[in-house]
């Protein structure tokens, strides 16, 4: 086993011992319950740790992460996380969180061969193509950051078009979906003011109550 892995295991032992010294009941409480109010859908980037950014301890945030914080309706992994968080954990808030300077967004905007991730980022390229005329006059770094914001807004809308969220709202569940972007350079979160709190805010074309009326 490499020295770097041994170091991680040593760090873990030291951390666990320290936590027990500071709070002997810490791990007992943590193992007995998971009752978070928040679901965080974020980027896999190692510089964006959900709990640390919003200063909440383990057990308070349910987390799903992937490259460029995308919510594809064909992604059973992401949809399973959302369904469990909404239907079982009964979270009150879902935060879709991007970050400025996102490598996935940059790859989609600048092009090039990126292997299998190209398929994953296809929807981001489509977004960029849609907004190209309003973005192409900007320096590339600003284009990428602007796309990080536009992508978050798109994923908020995508999430709210799922039957999981819409059925939760239909049965009166109190749940809001928020769009945020995190700044790596200053550690601050920017609220994009695209929060959706109910079915009436979802575009009519994508609402399940419209589909039911046509049955």
From TrEMBL:
A GO biological-process term: carbon utilization
Entry keywords, A to Z: Lyase, Metal-binding, Zinc
Note on how the cofactor is bound: Binds 1 zinc ion per subunit.
Record field: catalytic activity: hydrogencarbonate + H(+) = CO2 + H2O
Cofactor field: Zn(2+)
InterPro entries per UniProt: Carbonic_anhydrase, Carbonic_anhydrase_CS, Carbonic_anhydrase_sf
Principal EC category: lyase
Pfam families per UniProt: Pro_CA
CDD domains reported in the protein's UniProt record: beta_CA_cladeA
Similarity comment text for this entry: Belongs to the beta-class carbonic anhydrase family.
Name of the featured protein: Carbonic anhydrase
Organism of derivation: Vreelandella andesensis
